[in-house]
C-alpha cells in the first residue's frame, strides 16, 4: 500500500482520487465543534437551524469538512511530506449536512525542485471535495515539500523508522520451525 509519494512520482496534471469516502455523522460534527470550541448554533442547535437558517437544518462546520478532505489526501499526496508549506486558498462553496458522504480528489498543478536542498521538491496541488451527489462543497490549494528518492534512501527507504519485530517467548520469529 502506498503512503504518499516522492517528488519523482508526482506528475503535473495527474489526479489522485481518494478512497474511501467518509459519511459525516451528527456525532462527528458535534464532537469536532466541541473539541475546537466552535459553539455556533448553526452546527449544534437543531431548533435554531430549523427556525432561523435558509437550510432548515444543521450545517457541518467547515473546518471539519476541510480536515476530512485533507486527511483523505494524505495517502496519495502528503504521506511522505517533509513539510506542509502553505494553504494558499480554501473555499467552502456549498454546505455539508449530517449524513452526507464526502469524497475527494487532488490534481497536481505544478512541481519544482528545491533551490536550497537537492534532496527535495515542492508540489502544488488542488483538492476538490464533493458529496454523494457529486456536488462540490470545498476546494483548496496547497504547497507541500516532499522528499526525492535520494532523501528516502538515506533515511531507510519506503518506511523509514519502522522497527523490526523481535522474537521472544510469545513469538519465536519468522524462521522458527513449528
UniProtKB/TrEMBL annotation:
<feature type="region of interest" description="Disordered">
    <location>
        <begin position="150"/>
        <end position="178"/>
    </location>
</feature>
<dbReference type="InterPro" id="IPR029069">
    <property type="entry name" value="HotDog_dom_sf"/>
</dbReference>
<dbReference type="GO" id="GO:0016829">
    <property type="term" value="F:lyase activity"/>
</dbReference>
<dbReference type="InterPro" id="IPR052342">
    <property type="entry name" value="MCH/BMMD"/>
</dbReference>
<dbReference type="InterPro" id="IPR048274">
    <property type="entry name" value="MC_hydratase"/>
</dbReference>
<dbReference type="Pfam" id="PF19315">
    <property type="entry name" value="MC_hydratase"/>
</dbReference>
<protein>
    <submittedName>
        <fullName>Bifunctional protein PaaZ</fullName>
    </submittedName>
</protein>
